[in-house]
Please model this.
Amino acid sequence: MEATKVTLSDAELALAMDPQVMLMKNAVVDAVYGLFGRVAERQREILTPLRPRFGEVFDLPPKIARGEKYRGLPYVMLDHPRSFSPTDILAVRTLFWWGHFFSVTLHLRGRWLERFEPGILASRARWVAGGFHVSTGAQEWEHHFGADNYTPVESLGEEEWGRGFSDLGFVKLARRHPISRFGEMEELLSEGFGDALEILHLSL
Model:
């Protein structure tokens, strides 16, 4: 059987011939890495006074990682705190997704969800004021803000919000920012992290 001929469009060929494309992409990713390193230090400062109340969940250091193909596009993520097991999760993921946004996401499952769900539900006004979205999609590891994955907390009425998260078995509360605000991002991401952890602290 004759092999299918592989071809490139004119636009694809132009990109493949231009080394500046990848050099600029690498420079952007490196800049995000540096940004996340500074954000991680700010997060450590926020977490320090909370450590006695949360225990071992804060023991692991921040983890910054990169990938190339979340929905076909590069990303960089910072997980801190990061407590993952097959049944229990307490994590905050700071994410840069190429061409889309920066975000900060609080992710709870299992015993951590059971522990904090009443306080989260009682703090609806704080989540609304902070511009947070809540997970509605069944795919726990999707991060996009499509209508099938997240909805603004403010769009949910008191009754719907009060039903809780038992149907999904997890909750993610996320705040996003446009990449165009890169110069402000250290402050914006640190604020989102601080707001989420403050609400958890008040829920104890």
